[in-house]
Amino acid sequence: MTASTSARTTFGSDVAFAAVYAALTQVELWVFRSDVSNGQQLAASVLIALMAVTLAFRSRAPVPAYFVNGVAVVVTSAVVGVPGDVYPFGNIVLLYTMATVASTGVAVLGLATGLAGVAVYFGSLSEEPVLGAFTMILWALAWAAGRASLTRRIQVAVEHERGLSLAAAEAQEARLALEAQRRRMTREIHDLVGHTLNVMVVHAGAGRRAVGTDPGGARGAGDHRTRRTDGAGGAR
């Protein structure tokens, strides 16, 4: 699977998740929140739709998506005055995703604003402080899980790079060893050829001197060598 195909698959999954989220939150708003006015429902519906859009882009733009979603949650609860049992939890999904990719400074800022948003949410709705504290713990755990995922991914990348470096070093060492072997063989062949040529030159010079001083002896030596060669051939 190519990178572009993987990205399209991830975006498709995010859109599907956002569509399910939008359906659930809109049903909750229009069916189960009859205690608020139509104007509040309409405003909350638009904001919840915006939250769904941020979820659709959680993999492509996780940091902006998280912060926009957080603002929408706070405005829906504290300004519009419409609480919900479903729509706030889109923020925890984005908090986790943001924590898996953001730098340390941005991640810490995201956690701080997320916890502040939870406090504003429960404060504006006059909920029990214990429930608010428990929700803060959930948000903090999601953030910690995201950072742990980032750390694991970095470690895997480092190990992969180390493996590639070791493989490259081994390949370089093998190449150098092969080159050294080739140079050694070249030197041996050069020495062998040089020695053979020297022997041939010495024999040729000795033969010329023998022909000049003792033609009969040189001819006899040649015949003797020929007989030895023929005898060796016959023996074989």
Task: Write structural notes for this entry.
With 236 residues, the protein is mainly alpha-helical. The chain has seven helices and no strands. The chain is rod-shaped. The model is unreliable at 224-229 and 231-236 (pLDDT under 50).
Secondary structure layout plus pairing:
Layout: H1 3-32, H2 38-56, H3 62-80, H4 89-99, H5 104-124, H6 129-213, H7 215-235
Average pLDDT figure = 85
| Largest sheet properties | none
Evaluate the radius of gyration.
43 Å
Query: SSE order in H/E notation?
Result: HHHHHHH
Which parts are unreliable, with pLDDT below 50 for 5 consecutive residues or more? 224-229, 231-236
Helix fraction bin? over 70%
- Tally of helical runs: 7
Termini gap: 68 Å
| Outline type | rod-shaped
The total strand number stands at: 0
- Beta-strand content bin: under 5%
Structural class: mainly alpha
